[in-house]
Amino acid sequence: MDAPIERDPSEISYDEQRYPARPRRLRPRDQLRSGSLRRFVSDPRTANGTNPAYIEWLVRQSMLKDADVLARTLSGQPSMWRNPYARPDARRAIETSDVWFTAYPLSLITRAGESFLQALGDDRLWQAFEKIGINGLHTGPVKRAGGITGWQQTPSVDGHFDRISTQIDPDFGDEAAVRRLADVADSHGGSVIDDIVPGHTGKGADFRLAEMAYKDYPGIYHMIEIPPEDWNLLPEVPEGRDSVNLDPAQERELSERGYIIGELQRVIFYTPGVKETNWSATAAVTGTDGQDRRWVYLHYFKEGQPSINWLDPTFSGMRLVIGDALHSLGELGTSALRLDANGFLGVEKSTEGLPAWSEGHPLSQAANHIIAGMVRKVGGFTFQELNLTMEDIRDTGAVGADLSYDFVTRPAYHHALATGSTEFLRLALNTSLATGVEPVQLVHGLQNHDELTYELVHWATTHRDDVFEFRHGEVTGLELAQHIRAELTEVLTVGADYNLVFTQNGIACTTASLIAASQGRATLDDITDEDAASIRDAHLLLARYNAWQPGVFALSGWDLTGSLTLPAEEVRSLIATGDTRWIERGAHDLLDVDPDATRSAAGMPRARALYGALPAQLEDPHSFASGLRHVLDVRRAHGIAVATQVDIPQVAHPSMLVMVHRLDGGDAALEDAPLQITVLNFSPETIDGTVRSDSLVPRSGVIDAESGESVGRVDDLQSFPLQLGPYEGRFLIFEAPEPEELHPVTRAIHIIPTA
Predict the structure, then answer these.
(1) What is the pTM of this model?
(2) CATH number of the domain at 90-201+317-349+358-637, please?
(3) Which of 69, 415, 434, 754 is surrounded by the fewest CB atoms within 10 Å?
(4) What is the biggest distance separating any 2 CA atoms in the chain, rounded to whole angstroms?
(5) Inter-residue contact 541 to 730 (CB < 8 Å)
(6) Which CATH number fits domain 643-735: 3.55.40.10, 2.60.40.1180, 3.90.660.10, 3.40.1010.20?
(7) 226 φ, ψ to 5°?
(8) Which parts of the chain register pLDDT below 70?
(9) In which residue ranges is the amino acid composition biased (Basic and acidic residues) (predicted)?
């Protein structure tokens, strides 16, 4: 062994002299060796909670992160206190814009290289809208949607209603295009309406972070961590899938063990073997702490649409939704927001043996009040897609959204056209008035991206056992709903092979294909060019029904072009899982920018359009667009949009509908305001009938507002006769009664007899 080296004391290092007994790991040089550089054992390509780079990547694109940033920029600013916000105001919203075009990003044919949002901002389009009378544009969902698997984005599973980001989807354009669209709309007296989805997201960054138990993110969703010892209760997740829907037995077992609240009041989009319950289980996910977890999560709609939890202690879900709303209104310049599927924001366990309370829940009303109040606070307004009972629409609308989508009469007017009888439509309208849902609160629409909804929730649920008079007899609400659904299905799908039932929700069809089926056309080939005129006339009848009553009137590009459904084989891959709505979403070209295009930029096949593009239609006085222009001219000239509906009287002919309105601008104190009557014929035949209402003043003159011609005079029984041609509609106003004719007073005259 070598002897130790002798050194002079002056050669002893500072470290040895100063810290002779310090352990090596605490000496300064050794501290330098354990500096701030972090080394990771995991592969930087790893897509789970063990990779900080992956977590950071997800956070940067999460909606919750964006919401937190937006909130800090607006908090404490005077702009947040300048507008009233506590109470909905339908008429104020209507005065902003009362006739809406509802767009659908995947279906609009654009110029080569032009994005969807650029096309909507085309000045030529807004010139056409202004001529027709359209002053609002609902863009539809344009933000990123779908999901994230690993480092890759996956496509939307529900037409972009599974939002995962506040960013505009680059397939549709960018934020600059939205701002230009808002500016062009404003220059033509119009405004832009965006969407938010307060009930769910897609499986994007927020959901993936929630699965990994990262910070507040699990609080966004109704998701429950199942401990490993009970993983045997969960279904196996096949390779290539990230979750599996629970079957009813698994749902029941997890509920009995106290993990979930179990069965809900209904299973929306129910499809055997695909979606049998509203709960799904994830595969094992490695969290940021290295622990593997499996979750069960709620989804009212599809498996890729996890439901937001509005009453979690972190309030993460609320923050996410409010941030998305403020981004649309503040950053993009939109004027209003559609609240998608906002009736399902609260769930609660019910008593033993009953489904969980999931519809009409007070938490939904409270959450809607918060959303709508925040939007009003920054100067906008909201309308809701709330397909529940009339009482739910009334109660939610009392504090929440300014307007509600017309699920009250939409299936009823379709039924009137399909059967030629307005009895159920009159029942729906009168029930709505009696319940306290006025038409001025509603968005009365023709076709949009969704199915013809025929769930008839009001009749089939809360009022299922109530008795109603119908067709000279009495039926329960459930029997009535079943009867109406059966008749719609028979006429529109059994009698016509080009409209398809959509799960248990309704029928996939366009307005034009609904009319064609009602007119007895069995196949698409049976619909000839000669049929276009009668389809147009019926289409204008439905436009008159929706536009000649108080409230917003809405229609789509499929309506403006007279689009038919797509042959099922052209969208076979899209409808394979049961979502038949894709047949009604065919591509259409509003301005004839690409006559040779067979598909939209998103790949939707071009639909057959009976009416053609708008420029040619506006040059043809007999076209649908020109007819619609006259309908809307009358609507505006008399202020029907903000009027008050006062009566839906009985009629002398089953195909006739009469709606009586007071043109009071919403001021109930104006009891002597002028009256107006909308009279419609839902049949292809000429009919003779009598219009009668207790609201009519005897001897008033009846004037056709479109032609200015006298129609007749109200008799002492408060009625007058009227003839209507096939699918004809009349907008009638009244002249003051003429003074009563003076009859001479007679008396006896004494006659002096002659001698």
Answers:
(1) 0.86
(2) 3.20.20.80
(3) 754
(4) 184
(5) no
(6) 2.60.40.1180
(7) -100, 125
(8) 1-43, 740-755
(9) 1-19
